[in-house]
């Protein structure tokens, strides 16, 4: 099936002035058209609904639904959450709960599909890097924050690149990185264009890049030296970050097993003991009101 632009341009000379007005609007606003009903498009293009019907037939299509299907195809990943919400509104709470739990189970089970040694290799790369940058936005940033917390006791130089301080700050940090460093980029649907742009900047600086995403067609895959694919489907939300948290928990466990001795674990426990709750705290008498 032809692309919407190709279809309109191929029939342009056959369109009336009003129909060309619709075509111009569709070519200038392809994403909006993908979300519009026939009445919405007629209002936006300042024509009648009948003109829209004649326009799509002039393109050789049966009806507006076929025209909309072509428009939507280019943005399926972006529009899928809208469809998810529409379906969710028709479901009961029990049905949504069952679907969400089944999805969570499948995503965690998908971690077992990781190639042997992928997590070990990731730990090795992180431990051997001069600096580790963690690039991601939205739920990906939350996952990477968790990874940083689990590994900060073993890595001296980690930097979270999640937009904090502005994109200029991120560009300066990545621009100073080089071949001895490592950038871990995470992107889940719907993908952030900023993640792609900063990955390009890192590649231009010769920084080795590892991508964590949900499929081989993800826009970050061509920009990464290595890629770890995780399941991220969700029946309602844009995507699920659950497998990401599971992966990073595994990475944290490997760092702990490799790089923390029992004596170091004991010393750390003694250090933080004053800040931990114990059963003794529950038996203490609350302080008297000094008033």
TrEMBL record:
<dbReference type="Pfam" id="PF01380">
    <property type="entry name" value="SIS"/>
</dbReference>
<dbReference type="GO" id="GO:1901135">
    <property type="term" value="P:carbohydrate derivative metabolic process"/>
</dbReference>
<keyword id="KW-0805">Transcription regulation</keyword>
<dbReference type="GO" id="GO:0003700">
    <property type="term" value="F:DNA-binding transcription factor activity"/>
</dbReference>
<dbReference type="Pfam" id="PF01418">
    <property type="entry name" value="HTH_6"/>
</dbReference>
<dbReference type="InterPro" id="IPR000281">
    <property type="entry name" value="HTH_RpiR"/>
</dbReference>
<feature type="domain" description="SIS">
    <location>
        <begin position="122"/>
        <end position="265"/>
    </location>
</feature>
<dbReference type="InterPro" id="IPR009057">
    <property type="entry name" value="Homeodomain-like_sf"/>
</dbReference>
<dbReference type="GO" id="GO:0003677">
    <property type="term" value="F:DNA binding"/>
</dbReference>
<dbReference type="InterPro" id="IPR046348">
    <property type="entry name" value="SIS_dom_sf"/>
</dbReference>
<keyword id="KW-0238">DNA-binding</keyword>
<feature type="domain" description="HTH rpiR-type">
    <location>
        <begin position="2"/>
        <end position="78"/>
    </location>
</feature>
<protein>
    <submittedName>
        <fullName>Transcriptional regulator, RpiR family</fullName>
    </submittedName>
</protein>
<dbReference type="InterPro" id="IPR035472">
    <property type="entry name" value="RpiR-like_SIS"/>
</dbReference>
<keyword id="KW-0804">Transcription</keyword>
<dbReference type="InterPro" id="IPR047640">
    <property type="entry name" value="RpiR-like"/>
</dbReference>
<dbReference type="InterPro" id="IPR001347">
    <property type="entry name" value="SIS_dom"/>
</dbReference>
<dbReference type="InterPro" id="IPR036388">
    <property type="entry name" value="WH-like_DNA-bd_sf"/>
</dbReference>
<dbReference type="GO" id="GO:0097367">
    <property type="term" value="F:carbohydrate derivative binding"/>
</dbReference>
